[in-house]
Amino acid sequence: MTATTNDECVLKWCNEAGEHRTHRQYVMSSVCWHRTWLVGVNVAQPEGEPRRVEFTAASRWAAPVAVTLQPDEAEAVGQALIEAAARATR
Ligand SMILES: [Zn+2]
Q: What is the reported pTM?
């Protein structure tokens, strides 16, 4: 565990404060679909493990979900989102 007594993590890229076992950088969060969903994208690195991408979704009506993705999987999902958005606006 990265025990920190001050507010900042020793890793400069990490946005977490205080004690934490997973380093995390919050890349984006957005309120979506008629303000009913909060969607987030993070870089996460549990202690001793490689970095990965987290895709999170939360709403008032469902339990929050966090999907963990390998970087190449996140790129594939990102490309699919762009393609789907383009098709949805045609
Ligand atoms: Zn950290």
A: 0.85
Taking only the tens of pLDDT, the chain with its 90 residues reads 444 455 789 999 999 999 999 999 999 999 999 999 999 999 999 999 999 999 999 999 999 999 999 999 999 999 999 999 999 999
CA of 59 to the centre of ligand 1 (A): 26
- DSSP codes of every residue in 31-67: EETTTTEEEEEEEEEETTS--EEEEEEEETTEEEEEE
Residues with CB under 5 A from ligand 1 (ion): 9, 11, 14, 16, 23
Q: Is the residue at 35 inside a domain?
A: yes
Residue 65 lies in a domain: yes
Identify whether 14 is part of a domain.
Answer: no
